[in-house]
């Protein structure tokens, strides 16, 4: 598997993370490719979200370190980090009664000083983020009145309004239907292409991950099992090893990226009309009984 080379802005060195005595991420070395879309995949409870928290400075290493621009991220001031690194956690909680425009506007806090007034630049960043996420018409609505999908788009708008060079998202497609999942991932890829934003995402859907990632990281039991391009990582052997899933890998006819087809214990029924059971012989007529 290929590994990124050079001095990446964000990297983990022998990173070990956990909760109390329980080790969740073990001795991980990872260089996040600058200006690319990186997606972290793996089975439930494998350490994906914990790894993202470590990269985002929310989880303190038990051993090893996370480096941002060559410095240990935990040694840098919080506001300084927030100017260059944005995070959308898995289950964010909005203050009670806050309206959409105000929540999205909170993404601008790292760029404001104690006595700095709300600027035209701040206003433009918030409006652009809301337009991109199709939440502009929700500006005056209370966040707690929105559907799950609408709330998720508002949180993503807040992350975009922060205007950082590095954007980390934990399950950004949560609560979104399939159409909005694709729209949101298209938006993040376009953001990466237009602004050069480095994007790191945790996703559950392996096929969407393979379609949208430049760099794919497969995690199992707190360790990186494979990383590289989707074509290098999404193989039948790796999918079987990481997910314990018998599978076939074919080419996606639309994106030409790897497409995983699960092989289940019960094969699907053939398409088409079901065969008709033979009818029971009819009873003899009264004439035949004579």
Radius of gyration: 25 Å
Helix content: 25-40%
Average pLDDT confidence is 89
Quaternary structure state of the chains depicted: single chain
Largest sheet: 6 strands, mixed
What is the rounded distance between the termini? 85 Å
Q: In sequence order, what are the helices and strands, one letter per element? A: EEEHEEHEHHHEHEHEEHHEE
How many DSSP helices? 9
Largest beta sheet: what is the strand line-up? Answer: 6-7-8-3-9-10
Beta-strand proportion: 15-25%
Give a count of the beta strands, DSSP E runs of length 2 or more.
12
**What are the low-pLDDT stretches, counting only 5+ consecutive residues below 50?**
1-5, 285-290
* Category from helices, strands and their pairing: alpha/beta
General shape: globular
Protein name: ABC transporter ATP-binding protein
Membrane topology: Peripheral membrane protein
Subcellular location: Cell membrane
Domain ABC transporter: 10-246
Task: Give an account of the 3D structure.
Keywords: ATP-binding, Cell membrane, Ion transport, Iron, Iron transport, Membrane, Nucleotide-binding, Transport. It is found in: Cell membrane. It is a peripheral membrane protein. It comes from Nocardioides zeicaulis. Its main location: membrane. With 290 residues, this protein is α/β, with parallel strands linked by helices. It has 9 helices and 12 strands. The chain has a 6-stranded mixed beta sheet with strand order 6-7-8-3-9-10, sandwiched between helices. Strands 2-1-4-5 form a 4-stranded antiparallel beta sheet, with helices on one face. A two-stranded antiparallel ribbon has the order 11-12. A hairpin with a 2-residue loop joins strand 1 and strand 2. Helix 4 packs antiparallel against helix 5. The longest helix is centred in the middle third of the chain and has 18 residues. The radius of gyration is 25 Å and the shape is globular. The termini are far apart. The N terminus and C terminus are likely disordered.
